[in-house]
Design brief:
The chain has helices spanning about 1-5, 10-30, 35-40, 45-75, 75-90, 100-115, 115-125, 130-160, 165-175, 180-185, 205, 210-215, 215-230, 235-250, 255-280, 285-305, 310-345, 350-375, 380-400, 420. By secondary structure, the protein is mainly α. The longest helix has about 35 residues, at about 310-345. It has one domain (about 10-195, about 215-415): MFS general substrate transporter like domains (Growth Hormone, Chain: A, Up-down Bundle). α13 (about 215-230) runs parallel beside α18 (about 350-375) and α16 (about 285-305) packs antiparallel against α19 (about 380-400).
């Protein structure tokens, strides 16, 4: 099953290896940024949320420029310097000692990360055929989470809020990990260049740009779905999930680390099985299911919060179960969202399509962290649970409305061989 999911080209396999290795470093720090800023560096909960929200705002502001640069110069010339900037910024987190320095470092990290996701997705799209992209994107996500899980488990045994040096260590290791995919990309000199030769598109390119992307009605609907889902889903993990688990369910940071590990185990064990089940089936149907699964996960977390100190074990199990259920939803979203984005994109504008898709996380990264704190503080977290559950279910409704706008090939219900007959770009 794993061999079937691997991309045909060896260059793509090496890109996936870079994803895995860098993800180990990311996993060391992912669950702990909010805890690090508040419990170690002394920022208040609202200020920590604003710092994380500011990161999302800067990423959002720069993502369109990243997509334009990718289409104009190729993903390689954009991703390599961004990885270096990201490494510098992540390492600088170890030196944060005030609100001002936290904002400054968050800005540097945002500059680096603004084009990495869209650039790497564009590179993978250029190295894979349409009939294998959904599987490859799913495998990429599974490897990403495997690395994050390994890093999270390692960090859970290292970090101690009474010893700031333990947090400084994991941020320095994370910084070094960002250099791994850069080294791999440097070893592939023919990968990541401009997909359409200069002058080949002529006036078509000048008349295109983001206006052309925004005129794509199915893609607009997909963006709306993604905004609603990620705001009430992914954007809640670093702040909403962590804050609710610690402040309301009253579990320890170590339980949060185990919850993230359970999320990873679910993804790694089920991703290939899910890929096999959804292949040849409606992509929009999978997106509808994702919203329902995410809503279920938040309901379980809400129940854990109501238990609280009354039964610490039950509360801990609820937090871990929430993360595991959420992970199952991710195994459907991770291959479908980028595959559908690239099914709608053309080579001339592929960087911009992927940048718009990554901007979804930037927008939700602003809204989610900033609103999570106040919502969790209202009615002992019940308001926050109601909002995120309702939002995930609303996203499922949007996904249902997307299906009539897609061809059978774009929706994954027809063989990729039929693409030429329908005139859909690969």
């Amino acid at each position: 099953m794993l061999r079937r999911a691997l991309p045909r080209r060896p260059e793509a396999r090496r890109i996936l290896l870079g994803t895995l290795l860098s993800a180990v470093g990311r996993g060391l720090t992912l669950p702990f940024l909010f805890i690090y800023l508040t419990d170690v560096r002394g920022l208040s909960d609202p200020r920590a949320g604003l710092v994380i929200g500011w990161y999302g705002a800067v990423t959002l502001a720069l993502s369109p420029l990243g997509g334009t640069l990718i289409d104009r110069f190729g993903a390689r010339r954009v991703v390599l310097p961004c990885l270096l900037v990201e490494a510098i910024g992540t390492g600088a987190l170890a030196l944060v000692d005030s609100t001002a320095s936290a904002f400054g470092v968050a800005t540097v990290i945002a500059v680096g990360s603004s084009a990495i996701w869209s650039g790497q997705n564009t590179i993978l799209a250029s190295l894979t055929a349409d009939d294998e992209r959904q599987r490859v994107y799913g495998l990429n996500f599974a490897l990403l989470n495997l690395g994050i899980g390994v890093g999270g488990l390692t960090a859970g045994a290292i970090v101690d809020t009474a010893r700031p040096a333990t947090f400084q260590l994991i941020y320095l290791i994370d910084a070094v990990s960002y250099l791994t995919p850069a080294i791999i990309l440097l070893s592939l000199p023919h990968v990541g260049h401009r997909l359409v030769a200069a002058g080949a598109t002529g006036a078509a390119t000048s008349a295109g740009g983001y206006l052309t992307v925004l005129r794509d009605r199915p893609f607009r609907r997909l963006v709306i779905f993604g905004l609603v889902l990620t705001t009430c889903g992914y954007a809640q993990i670093e702040v909403g999930f962590t804050a609710y688990a610690i402040r309301v369910a009253e579990v320890t940071p170590r339980v949060v680390a185990w919850a993230l590990a359970a999320n990873t185990v679910m993804i790694v064990l089920s991703q290939l099985l899910v890929l096999r089940r959804i292949e040849g089936r409606s992509r929009t149907g999978a997106l509808v299911a994702v919203g329902a699964v995410f809503a279920t996960a938040w309901l379980v977390l809400g129940a854990a919060g109501q238990v609280g100190t009354g039964d610490a074990l039950v509360a801990a199990l609820g937090v871990v179960a929430c993360a595991a259920i959420f992970g199952f939803g991710e195994t459907m979203l991770s291959p479908v969202m980028p595959a559908l984005t690239n099914a709608l994109a053309t080579d001339e504008l592929r960087g911009r399509y992927n940048a718009m898709s990554s901007m979804i996380f930037g927008i939700s990264g602003v809204i989610g962290p900033v609103t999570a704190g106040p919502l969790i503080g209202a009615a002992d977290g019940k308001v926050w649970v109601a909002v995120v559950v309702g939002g995930c279910l609303a996203a499922s409704v949007v996904a249902l409305s997307l299906r009539p706008l897609l061809t059978a090939v774009q929706d994954g219900r027809a063989p990729a061989a039929d693409r030429a007959a329908e005139g859909v770009p690969a």
